[in-house]
Amino acid sequence: MTFDRITLDPKQMGGKPCIRGLRVTVSTVLGLLASGHDRQRILAAYPYLEPEDIDAALKYAAWRLEEHVGELVPA
Questions:
Q1: Residue 23: how many CB atoms within 10 A of its CB?
Q2: Which of 11, 23, 24, 41 is surrounded by the most beta carbons within 10 Å?
Q3: Residues 54-70: pLDDT tens digits?
Q4: 6-63: which CATH topology?
Q5: Contact at 8 Å (CB) between 46 and 34?
Q6: 5-50, pLDDT tens digit by residue?
């Protein structure tokens, strides 16, 4: 699977997955969503993000979770 909006650069943000080479990590976007912030609030706080960036972050996270599902421990 390819993710054209997700970039990985070891020289940027410690190599964490970022949105389109910006200094906004996928985990930042996911954390904001998980904390209850809606898309409009995230886009207002980060005006250089686009709605498709949020979708890409969610798709990337789902893909990564599927890759590591065997490592999850049931609660």
A1: 10
A2: 24
A3: 999 999 999 998 865 55
A4: Arc Repressor Mutant, subunit A (1.10.10)
A5: no
A6: 999 999 999 999 999 999 999 999 999 999 999 999 999 999 999 9
